[in-house]
Amino acid sequence: MERIPVNRNISVDLVTVGFASAEIPAEQGLLYLFPIDDKRFYVQLCYMVYAEATVVESQVTVISFQPEFFDQFFDADILANYPFRAGRTNELQVPVCAKTINLLSQLKGLQTAMPMLKALHSAQKAVQLLHMALECILAPDPVCSLPACGFLENVQEREKILDAKKILDSNQDKNVTIRELSRMVAINECYLKKGFKAVTGKTIHDYQQEMRIDKAKQMLGAEGATVTEVADKLGYSSISHFSTAFKRVTGMKPCELLM
User: Fold this and answer.
1) Is there a domain that residue 167 lies in?
2) Rg of the Cα trace of the chain?
3) Which residues constitute the domain of residue 166?
4) Could you tell me if residue 142 is inside a domain?
5) Which of 57, 67, 119, 225 is the most exposed place for a label (fewest CB within 10 A)?
6) What is the pLDDT of residues 86-104, one digit of tens each?
7) In the predicted model, is pLDDT for residue 43 greater than 50?
8) Into how many domains does the chain fold?
9) What is the pTM of this model?
10) Separation between Cα atoms, residue 85 and residue 27, nearest integer Å
């Protein structure tokens, strides 16, 4: 474990965690709130992210805010908001997006011989991450007609799912991974998968496959493309992979459309 010195009220710990290649969990962010008494709190932000999609090792960043950190704020301002007013220990998911990744990198990456500047820099990035996390948690929750996932009651979270669908619709020739998609729309991978299924009735994988196969049928039929051309254009790794996916969705082989 490595510790980044910040100040008396904020500390940052870096822990490297390894996984078996078949058991790599999704990237995630969590906020833990521990009440010390009615008006004092200890808060931790934990982020587990990967530098590359294929790695089997992750660095967990734990940012701890001591109760004294919150002494600079008015009690009424803190207690007016969930989860502080709940008066109990809370574990809340927060999104991991491109901005989160960038801030975590900056938090760990400043090189300077001046300790005071490094401490100020680290404190600023830690507070920005806390601000982003609380902004997500404290967002208003308008009533929604999609009861399958509670977080979809938040109109901002629901719009992120719709944004993810639009990204897939405009990238039919690319295999956008769930990790990439979650970063693009700034939502936790687990929430993205559950929300997408609730909104569209399909998993992200099934939606992508059906969309690509619909495009393939158009190219094979109306546009007269060859099977090889279609497989290459739509980003399949091989003709056999494309043929298998095509038959799974349509019940027929792609070459049958050319007969």
Assistant:
1) yes
2) 23
3) 150-201
4) no
5) 57
6) 678 888 888 777 788 888 8
7) yes
8) 3
9) 0.57
10) 28
Q: HEC profile for the chain?
A: CEEEECCCCEEEEEEEEECCHHHCCCCEEEEEEEEEECCEEEEEEEEEECCCCCCCEEEEEEEEECHHHHHHCCHHHHHCCCCHHHCCCEEEEECCCHHHHHHHHHHHHCCCCCHHHHHHHHHHHHHHHHHHHHHHHCCCCCCCCCCCCHHHHCHHHHHHHHHHHHHHHCCCCCCCCHHHHHHHHCCCHHHHHHHHHHHHCCCHHHHHHHHHHHHHHHHHHCCCCCHHHHHHHCCCCCHHHHHHHHHHHHCCCHHHHHC
Q: What residue type is 10 in one-letter code?
A: I
Q: State both tokens at 50.
A: 């990967």
Same domain, 22 and 124: yes
Q: Are residues 211 and 237 in the same domain?
A: yes
For residue 20, pLDDT over 80 is answered with no
181 and 236, same domain (yes or no): no
